[in-house]
Design brief:
With 417 residues, the chain is an alpha/beta fold. The chain folds into two domains: 205 residues, UDP-n-acetylglucosamine1-carboxyvinyl-transferase, Chain (Alpha-beta prism); 206 residues, UDP-n-acetylglucosamine1-carboxyvinyl-transferase, Chain. 31% of the residues lie in helices and 25% in strands. It has a four-stranded mixed beta sheet with strand order 22-23-1-24, with helices on one face. Strands 2-15-17-16 form a four-stranded mixed beta sheet, covered by helices on one side. α11 runs parallel beside α12. It is elongated and about 65 Å long. The structure holds ligand EPZ.
């Protein structure tokens, strides 16, 4: 296992390009199951989760070139199963369920099981597929799905679910008749998936709004190359890196509109911004002001930025109240931040962060993807050396983050544990 060794206290300066979005490319890869021919995706980051998804699709019989551009051909898919040993390492594997039942009318997908940040059930995925006419049985830890046909219907999602919306939208593209998804997720990654499906001939309206209408078609067209949107969470993480190190950086190849809420919240902490068409320049204040935040579905403050924002608030002048409203256990980074000298108390889903004058480097352990990003950010600001172990968590969702940070002047190296 690798660890990152960080010598903190250096303000980040310079310009860095943002990679493609993990949470956009994963549903796009699942969508390749909906129709044959070569699907070709550009701007694909090098991430562990993408390699895992490639392994899953190959195990089903797909032909894949897992590089840039990422090419997938599902003409020869024959094994309609997503096995436990893969799904347990990456819950986004459940995204193959919708497309598989839509095209092959059969699927056997392992239930994802628990996750560090919460139970994360998929009951709404299953309820929606049943509403479309899929017969589902839960047996031996697997979702066993089969259908004669899928019939469009009106589905109300009790909770806003990103991959639930994506699974059902994909399934509905090949259903007979029209499907309405009400209380749908509005994340940019949902919109990116809808845009790709439309290039395949799907008839989708309202992606990005709470009501998505899908008119089923008999089959989808041959794919054409598609460029994945930039990763708004990596972008937000880099903006926080500027703020926490007292630096000034420009991130390029991003979509500022996807960052509005994050930028507004960072402005509340005193950071200042210049915003271009596909770039954002961020400048840290002399003194970081505290700010409260509650995580919400898009366009609210993203839960995937909560841990990173908390790292910044550890050094703020004042007290900030951070409420995690999406997942029930997404404060795993708190005990590790405390090892660096942070003053944080937790009450259920609320963390109260009292800003301290400085953080002191220490050995800390990553527990999940965004927690590991939070520890790296804190290490960049801490006095002395911080070692972040188990960075395989980080590699799931960040493409060579240490190289990006080094290019901005950070003293950070990856070493074998
Ligand atoms: C997606 O996960 C993202 N992953 C997550 O990013 C992100 O944190 C999350 O959306 C929220 O924005 C991908 O897109 C691959 P949800 P997802 O379904 O779809 C509950 C990262 O760090 N729920 O929107 O699994 C669920 O438990 C990852 O990149 C049900 O109860 O999240 C949660 O409390 C982490 N039943 C809430 O809804 C269901 O059937 C939102 O979950 C589905 C969800």
């Amino acid at each position: 296992m690798d660890k990152l060794v960080i010598s903190g206290g250096r303000p980040l300066k310079g310009e860095i390009s943002v990679s493609g979005a993990k949470n956009a490319i994963l549903p796009l890869m699942a969508a390749s199951l909906l129709t044959g021919g070569w699907h070709q995706f550009e701007n694909v980051p090098q991430l562990r989760d993408i390699r895992t998804f490639c392994t899953l699709l190959e195990s089903m019989g797909a032909d894949i070139r897992c590089e840039e551009p990422l090419c997938i051909n599902t003409d020869n898919v024959s094994r309609l199963e997503a096995p436990y040993d893969l799904v347990k390492t990456m819950r986004a594997s459940v995204l193959v369920l919708g497309p598989m039942v839509a095209r092959f009318k059969k699927a056997r997908v392992s239930l994802p099981g628990g996750c560090a940040i919460g139970a994360r059930p998929i009951n709404l995925h299953i309820k929606g597929l049943e509403a479309l006419g899929v017969n589902i049985e839960l047996r031996h830890g697997y979702v066993e799905a089969k259908a004669k046909r899928l019939t469009g219907t009106h589905i109300y999602l009790d909770l806003v679910t990103v991959t639930g919306t994506e699974n059902l939208m994909m399934a509905a593209t090949l259903a007979e008749g029209t499907t309405v998804l009400e209380n749908a997720a509005k994340e940019p990654e949902v919109v990116d998936l809808a845009n790709y499906l439309k290039t395949l001939g799907a008839k989708i309206k309202g992606a990005g709004t709470p009501i998505i209408t899908i008119e089923g078609v008999k089959e989808l067209n041959t794919p054409s190359p598609y460029r994945v949107i930039p990763d708004r969470i990596e972008a937000g993480t880099l903006l926080v890196a500027a703020g926490i190190t007292g630096g000034e950086i420009t991130i390029t190849n991003c979509i500022p509109a996807h960052l509005e809420t994050v930028i507004h919240k960072l402005q509340e902490t005193g950071m200042t911004f210049e915003i271009g068409e596909n770039w954002v320049k961020a400048k840290s204040p002399e003194i970081i002001s505290s700010a409260d935040v509650k995580t919400l579905p898009f366009p609210g403050f993203p839960t995937d930025m909560q841990a990173q924002f908390m790292a910044l608030m550890c050094l703020a002048d004042g007290v900030s109240v951070i409420t995690e409203q999406i997942f029930e256990n997404r404060f795993m980074h708190v005990s590790e931040l405390r090892r660096l000298g942070a003053d944080i108390s937790i009450d259920g889903r609320t963390a109260v962060v009292k800003g301290v004058k400085e953080l002191l480097g220490a050995k800390v352990m990553a527990t999940d993807l965004r927690a590991s990003a939070s520890l790296v950010l804190a290490g960049l600001a801490a006095k002395g050396t911080t070692e972040v172990s188990r960075v395989y968590h980080l590699d799931r969702g960040y493409d060579r983050l240490e190289k990006k940070l080094s290019a901005l002047g950070a003293n950070i190296v990856r070493v074998k544990e």
